[in-house]
Amino acid sequence: MLLWLIYDREHIPRNQFFIDRWLEAGREKGLSVQVVPREELTWGIRDNRLYLTAANQRGLPYCVVMRAMDPLLSSHLEGMGIPVFNNAGISRICNDKRLTHQFVSGLWPMMDTVFLGPGQIDSPFPYPVVIKSARGNGGRQVFLAEDEDAFRLALEQIAPDEALVQPLCDTPGRDVRVYMLGDKVVKAMMRVSLSDFRSNVGLGAEAFPWDPGEKPLALARQLAHRLDAGLIGVDFLFHQGRLLFNEIEDAVGTRMLYALGEGDIVRDYLAHILGLLDR
Predict the structure, then answer these.
(1) What is the distance of C-alpha 106 from the center of its chain?
(2) Which residue in 172, 210, 213, 248 could disulfide with 197, CB within 3.0 to 4.6 Å?
(3) pLDDT digits (tens, 9 = 90+) for 4-48
(4) What is the DSSP string of the chain?
(5) Phi/psi class of residue 254: alpha, beta or left (left: φ > 0; alpha: ψ in -120 to 50)?
(6) Residue 279, pLDDT score
């Protein structure tokens, strides 16, 4: 059985540890796991049917673990009958922060958020504010602006992507991530940065297990169920003494789980995928 692990080529080197875990887990299950750069795919319509080929690959995979943010590609693969994890619906919603906020709106409190349209160059909130690329991830393309000049510079750096803006929470540099595998909570972790308003481990933050209480975990389960999730991260930030929803991470990073010895999430994820495919 062949499984493809699809990445943007530029992200392969910094994810080699995670990739190696997939290769090892695949060998244990008798699977062939191939890393396929998204740039090596050719896909579209041929003879009135969906088609896809990959350089240096023979045939098509039994399933795909998608680590690139490409909802259209995920949908294309699913249209060809190839299961994709996470699915195309998750990729569409969770890789656009605006759609994510729409999806969660009314289920849990969140920071007031404005989706900026073309030509909007003034902050809708008093400074300081946080400006985010609608499709950024991992803390990249997220900027803190304390005045008009910084706000407009952030928009220039985010362009041509669209942006959303929020007031800065009162406890920056600290958040909580809940890892979900299917409907099950894997672990909740607090992430803390002493040097940045962002709390991403990939940007230098520290992480440790932390219990957010049953209600945030119940929300994470609800969201995972509604999305039919494989492996996702549900993130909360701190503001005015409570947890507010922040975002859902699709191709969620797992380095802090391994760094803290919190099991083998790749082995568990592969078992979850194979269990679904055997139904």
Answers:
(1) 21
(2) 172
(3) 999 999 999 999 999 999 999 999 999 999 999 999 999 999 999
(4) -EEEEEE-GGGTGGGHHHHHHHHHHHHHTT-EEEEEEGGGEEEEEETTEEEEEETT--S--SEEEE-S--HHHHHHHHHTT--EES-HHHHHHHTSHHHHHHHHTTTS-B---EEE-TT--S-SSPSSEEEEETT--TTTTEEEESSHHHHHHHHHHHTTS-EEEEEPPSSTTEEEEEEEETTEEEEEEEEE-SS-S---GGGT-EEEE----HHHHHHHHHHHHHHT-SEEEEEEEEETTEEEEEEEESS---HHHHHTT---HHHHHHHHHHHHHT-
(5) alpha
(6) 78
Closest to 196 measured CA to CA, from 138, 275, 241: 138
Beta carbons of 7 and 15 less than 8 angstroms apart: yes
Contact by Cβ (8 Å): 129, 151 = yes
CA atoms within 13 A on the CB side of 166: 22
Q: Which amino acid is at 47?
A: D
Beta-strand pair 84-85/63-66: parallel
Residue numbers of the chain with a pLDDT score lower than 70? none
